[in-house]
Amino acid sequence: MKDYTAANIRNIGVFGHGGEGKTTLTEAMLFNAGLLERLGKVENGTTTTDFDPEEIKRTISINAALAPLEWKDTKINVIDAPGFFDFYGEVSAAMALADSALIVVGAVSGPVVGVEKAMNMCKKAGKPRMMVVNQMDRENANFTKTMAEINEKFGPSVVPVQLPIMEGGQFVGYVDVPNMTAKKFDGKGEKEIAIPANMEAQAQSVYEALTEAAAETDEALMEKFFEEGELSREEILAGLSNGVKEGIVTPVCCCAAAPNIGVATLLDNLVHYMPSAAEVKPATATDADGNTVSMADYGKFAGQVIKTVVDQFGKYSIIKIHSGVLDASTTLYNANNEKTEKSGNVFIMRGKKTVQVDKLIAGDIGALAKLQFTATGDTLCDPSAPVIFTPIDFPASAISLAVSAKKQGDEDKVFAGLNKLLEEDPTISLEKNAETGDVLLSGLGEVHLDVICSKLKNKNGVEAQLAEPRIPYRETIRATAEAEGKHKKQTGSGQFGVVNMRFEPLTNGEDFEFVNAIVGGVVPKEYIPAVEKGTREAMRHGVLAGYPMTGVKATLFFGKYHPVDSKEVAFKSAARLAYKEACAHAAPALIEPIYRYYIHVPNDYVGAITSDLPRRRGVMEGMNPTDDGTEVVARAPMGEMVKYATDLRSMTQARGYFTKEFIGYEDVPGGEAKKIIEQAKREDEEEE
């Protein structure tokens, strides 16, 4: 691959709903660029960008993959992003790598939720975008209907620059609307034809809409349009191009990627309409003093690692260069960790294949191998002027399941392997729950976590299993009770200790308070700490179901000792006995963790959410309008919401999402508490 300037580089992410042909389209682009001898197929597992064993097995994209190609003196870094919602961490990485987006819409399915999500992400990130209506070769493909649905959802600023020519239900050519010409596919390329008579009126109508859209991008063009009622072809093209760069206009093309029809023309349009790396807004970073630094003024090398790939050959850090030049001699200073990485060869990645290059310039995307201290999101820059780029906004985990080794003895291997996978995927996390002992694997959905376990098996040869996590219930008391605890052992070395204790609810929100109310030395002061310690140890197991006891004030107010046989161990044991006896008669209650959920949904789904929450023992707290719908605020028990991410996705056609915050513990209702206590007793009996 030859050297390119930033003006001849396009970084284009391919986004959209799963199953609409993004990977197939990427494959066709590579084929047209002369990089492939034949087109691979997703269903056969032979495409360039779906190379992971899990992608091949499931026939879906799981990872964002790079596919750089050359087209008419332009380097296009294509980034093929997944469409399945469990892998939107990879979509976030692709969006960070891309300067602009190509959003793929199915000609049969229309602009479904994945298209909506892609458009919203582009708007939020300020990314220029184009759309392509793909799969025009399919039965029931309907460009006109699809465009009507697109305009209904996204407005008139989404305008076609091509209209498909259909003959006998077959996609045979297109009208190039800005130039008001028509092309027909002839098996070898395209030949110019007259615009079909039955399409002249439609083409003229769309041409007028394009003219108006182009005029709205520039005051001078708008003035001329009002005065003369038309613009020249050059002015229309320039206006549309500027409108795309500003995010004002979204042009729409059409193609059929699987039979490779119209893809070469799509590449032409990408080069023409999409902004170059030199035209996009320069990235900014923060220097050591907290000042904002524009990469247009920085002048030295700086780049951000957007994605980490770990395979059997090692670790690759995919980096986007924002300033300067990266080559084998560049000093790589990690500003996040304040460490210098060893310089090494520079690569580009095309699917799983790495190609060594001499250098990468600002605006380009490449890869570095075997970086020791660098993780996804880190900044690499010149050590003389450290800067840090804004962290990548990855989606927060939505579901947590308990993970364990399937085979006894493999625990260390399983967790070591999972920790390696954390390097690749910032949307998963691993954490041990101190109360339940579960190791929780968190991610974006059940399929996401299942894929992580499959990757673990493929890469490390060990199997993990997933289960619903144990809920960290706790126990407390609602009344006051007193009891005597007596420990007496006369055989061998004697042990003697008696304590009289009062247990009552704490009202200050604390877990435990111990009060020494002994007078007259009936329990010598050297044994008081043993009483407190014994009580604390006993409270690890409640009196109802064995869950930790909390919210208790324990007062030691009387006791007895023996001048010879009393020992610390005796008073610890006596305290445990007093705890069990008193708390059993102090109105013990089972309590459960309660979270506040902020559920964001389009307005059409508010009714479904509000009617579902009571079935989960949820309590509505309010509703707030948002830019794209409604935020439903509710409190609900953790135990009823373990798989809410999956259920919410089903209820809202994947349009809904939520965040949550822990707010405290509340009593479990009687019927539910009875079930939980009985289950705990059964488990205890099984263990015995």
User: Stretches where pLDDT falls below 50 for ≥5 residues?
Assistant: none
Please tally the helical runs, counting DSSP H or I stretches of 4 or more residues: 17
Gross morphology is elongated
In what order do the strands lie side by side in the largest sheet? Answer: 18-17-23-14-15-22-19-20
Strand content: 25-35%
- Give the fraction of residues assigned to helices: 25-40%
The average pLDDT value, as a whole number, equals 93
What characterizes the major β-sheet?
8 strands, antiparallel
The termini sit apart by: 69 Å
Total strand segments? 37
Work out the radius of gyration.
32 Å
Q: Indicate the structural class.
A: alpha+beta
Word description of this protein:
The structure is a single chain. This protein is an alpha+beta fold and 688 residues long. It has 17 helices and 37 strands. An eight-stranded antiparallel β-sheet has the order 18-17-23-14-15-22-19-20. Strands 2-3-1-4-5-11-6 form a seven-stranded mixed β-sheet, with helices on both faces. Strands 29, 34, 35, 36 and 37 form a five-stranded antiparallel β-sheet that branches. A hairpin with a 2-residue loop joins β7 and β8.
